[in-house]
Amino acid sequence: MIDDVRGEDGRSPVAEAPLPLPLEFEAHYLTNQEAFHAYALAFLGTNDLAEKAVHRAFLEILRHWSALLTERDLQEQTWAIMRRTVIAESLLGFRDQLAVMDSGLGLYRALGSLPPRQFDVVVLRYIAKYDTKHISWYMGVTPSTVDYHCRKARERLAPVHRRATKQKQEDAL
Fold this sequence. Notes:
Elements: H1 13-16, H2 23-44, H3 47-63, H4 65-69, H5 74-100, H6 107-112, H7 116-127, H8 132-139, H9 143-172
Helix pairs in contact: 2-3, 2-5, 3-5, 7-9, 8-9
């Protein structure tokens, strides 16, 4: 005999239950969630952004869980995912801040309108002062690709830079 487990509203609690997670993943989550959140909070500054970043990081970890289990150092690999996720969240926030800033020359607007990879390269190279090797690791691209994106971003920003230089020269006169 089969018991009907439907609630009074007719819905089945089994259909609404979350999918089971691998036990090892659950243990990894419980072990690292607090440290990941503290790191994200220190870096991003608000609890909402930290929770969002940690959630995204653990979804990424879960998506690659089978492959991560074959890695030599699971902790190092998952921490790298967490770091990249927090940095990406920070860059998104920075892009949003640029949209509301006004230099009078359109520089912030021009930076904010760069394609995502060009924006990331410019911010990481010129604001965060990362070298090409570290930028390529973070973005998961080759160093020559980092240089390409930087060159293309400079080409897009050149007209704004020329206007700024001309404005400075006129102001000096």
